[in-house]
Design a protein that fits this description.
The protein has 9 helices and 16 strands. The protein is α/β, with parallel strands linked by helices. It is globular.
């Protein structure tokens, strides 16, 4: 697809949906620039990651939380063009993630976005924009589930259910830097080398019942589990993989379901919790994202990028995500 991408003083290009369905519902439109607003940051977007929550919204699964037309995108990175009277500086590099992006207001699939200061995180870095675009949602989610929800001890063990996802790979980087033994699952044999390259110690081919394989590696069970599939069968199986007083942290819905009508009968003393990046705010996320950026620059964390797309090919990135071809993060650069 060949598209002209041009921004004047008043208008910007954006990918907008006016109805729900497949990737073909995206319309490449020219709309007015967001108007500066007190307490909000006007960001000139340089890159953004693609996330499954955006796929679910595009398919129509977000219900009343989204009104149309809407510019999707729950994250972006770029430069401050108006600081809304806040502490941020014009020209400063920032990332933004979550809050109510792409729900109550337009998100990152655009050349500009207006985001509340509470969900904008300043960064000091020389990393290229494509790399930065992969990091905010992926690593802030991975950090949150490991450090906040599970509270994984250093030098312990972690199982990642859905390991070849972008968040799964980010979890592997964080856990390995903590000195942990890392187990991760994939349903596809061809993704084993990707997990090994990410530092995973034991790769398990997921047939739906992996507890015996986990217990064969660590008879006492793992200290923590990042559960990214999110269906009843895998959640119950993950609980059986976990050591007494260990924790299963649910995050993500790779299994394409999020309607839980069951109450899991958990093994004694094993804990089940949930981490949602909807709780992200600047006070917490700013130092975490800076640490992530610094670790990626130093080679301690992987950027986990599967492919980078030009802005004009955003629908193709959604097609790749929907077909589960990617192992890692899909990133779009705006060419601004």
């Amino acid at each position: 697809m060949s598209l002209s991408i041009h921004q004047d003083n008043y208008c910007m290009k954006a990918w907008q949906i006016n109805s729900y369905g497949g990737p073909d519902v995206f319309k490449f439109v020219t709309i007015p620039d967001p108007s500066p607003k007190e307490g909000h940051i006007l960001i000139e977007i340089k890159a953004f990651g693609i996330n499954r929550s955006e796929l679910y919204t595009r398919q129509g699964h977000s219900g009343d939380a989204v009104t149309l037309p809407r510019v999707l995108g729950i994250e972006c990175v770029g430069i401050v063009r108006d600081n809304g009277g806040t502490d941020l500086k014009i020209g400063q590099k920032v990332g933004a993630a979550m809050g109510h992006m792409d729900r109550l207001y337009d998100g990152g699939y655009a050349e500009m976005a207006l985001i509340p200061r509470s969900n904008v995180y300043p960064m000091e870095t020389e990393l290229e924009w494509a790399t930065l675009g992969a990091l905010p949602e992926m690593y802030l989610t991975a950090w949150g589930v490991i450090k906040e929800a599970i509270d994984l001890p250093r030098n312990s063990s972690l199982l990642i259910r859905g390991g070849s996802s972008s968040v799964g790979l980010a979890c592997a980087s964080i856990a390995k830097e903590m000195g942990c033994t890392v187990l991760a699952t994939t349903r596809k044999q061809e993704k084993v080398p990707i997990l090994k390259a990410a530092g995973v110690d034991h790769v398990i081919i997921d047939d739906g019942q992996i507890a015996p394989q986990v217990k064969a590696i660590l008879p006492g069970g793992v200290a923590g589990v990042v559960e990214l599939v999110g269906i009843e069968k895998t959640i119950m199986d993950c609980l059986r993989c976990t050591a007494p007083k260990g924790t299963v942290g649910m995050v993500g819905f790779l299994g394409d379901t999020w309607d839980y009508k069951f109450f899991p009968w958990m093994p004694s003393t094993v804990k089940l919790t949930l981490y949602s990046s909807e709780t992200l705010h600047a006070e917490y996320a700013t130092p975490v994202l800076q640490k992530v950026v610094d670790h990626v620059a130093a080679g301690r964390y992987n950027s986990n990028i599967h492919q980078v797309f030009p802005f004009s090919e955003l629908p193709r990135a959604h097609e790749m995500m929907e077909s589960n071809q990617a192992a890692g993060k899909l990133v779009v650069v705006t060419e601004n």
